[in-house]
Write a structure and sequence with these properties.
Blueprint (H helix, E strand, L loop, with lengths): L4 E4 L1 H7 L7 H12 L5 E6 L12 H10 L8 E5 L3 H14 L6 E7 L2 H8 L3 H17 L3 E7 L3 E2 L3 E2 L2 H14 L3 E6 L6 H14 L2 H5 L4 E5 L6 H10 L4 E4 L23 H10 L8 H21 L2
Parallel strand pairs: 1-2, 1-10, 2-3, 3-4, 4-5, 5-8, 8-9, 9-10
Antiparallel strand pairs: 6-7
Helix pairs in contact: 2-3, 2-12, 3-4, 6-7, 7-8, 8-10, 10-11
Bound molecules: 3-hydroxy-3-methylglutaryl-coenzyme A (HMG) and magnesium ion.
Amino acid sequence: MKDVRVIDVAPRDGLQNEPGIVALDDKLKLVRLLTTSGVDEVEVTSFVSPKWVPQLADARALCDALATHPCKPAGVIYSALVPNDKGMDQALEVNLQAGRQVLDKVSVFTAASETFSRKNTNASIEETIERFRPVVARAKANSLLVRGYVSCVIACPFEGAISPQSVASVSRRLADLGVDEISLGDTIGAGTPDTVVAMLDAVRAALPCEWTSDDLKLNLHLHDTFGRASECVVAALNAGIRSFDASVAGLGGCPYASAPGKPAPGNIDTTLLVRTIRDRGFSTGASVDTLAVAAAFARSIVSAARMSSG
Ligand code: HMG
Ligand code: MG
């Protein structure tokens, strides 16, 4: 029995921000290594516009390849980002063609900052919510779980500090849409233990009570820009959060949170997350030894892709 859920987002958040494009076979191997590391979920890719994120243009091919190599242990979840109906079409086609559930969950994504929402998805927060309405309905009709991401839950690279009330209000909109869980993203790693707890308190106060009684409905997605992510994990654990995203080898960052010459740093390293959780006396299913193998492989494929991109 595990106390805390761990979701590795490296194949999506990690690779979307790389200057080079990682080969499909290497992505496949990374997903497989993570699948056997004992993490609960792997966010495998995004069905987004290849013009916006060329690094993940092979999303369909990756999922089709995952379908032909059924190595996923029972209980491990594969998820993918879908920003709109077009992305949802592809996610559903993967499962239809495979004749089984390769993808178990789809993730819609919006923000608590209007400017970030526009830069990330060419849509206002309100427009993203309207786009999600049919996506969530189709997911439910096809027995897929749905995650709703909120970015910029502490600060926005363009607008600065974001109020906990803004995060709470977007979270409530997602809950009302019928998502199964909400992932709160500190996109640029601006959080401190105090600001993270204040944000969590505001979100919880805005959500219906079933959201606060179920440990796995709220998830924290931390980037480690200023090296404070581990402290924020401890504060969130103390505040009752039992589900966290992380990225093996600390890969990642959102391309639209970067400034020229200053790419957004990565997610909290999965090994650091797992160690932090264990140091506080909680259990996870993840093995730091297996994660070390995945991390070494992740570093090697990213540096090969960087070299080939010049
Ligand atoms: P748009 O340009 O406004 O869309 O982009 P559009 O509907 O006008 O379509 C433009 C073109 O894109 C068309 O193709 C569409 O067919 C195509 P064309 O006719 O020009 O050849 N298109 C698509 N192609 C494939 N898959 C799709 C899709 N949709 C349209 N799903 C759109 C709107 C949302 C598509 C675009 O802005 C986009 O793809 N954005 C994604 C950006 C992204 O992936 N950001 C990173 C993920 S979020 C993140 O990292 C934060 C997170 O980690 C949490 C945190 O840290 O805070 C989750
Ligand atoms: Mg992120």
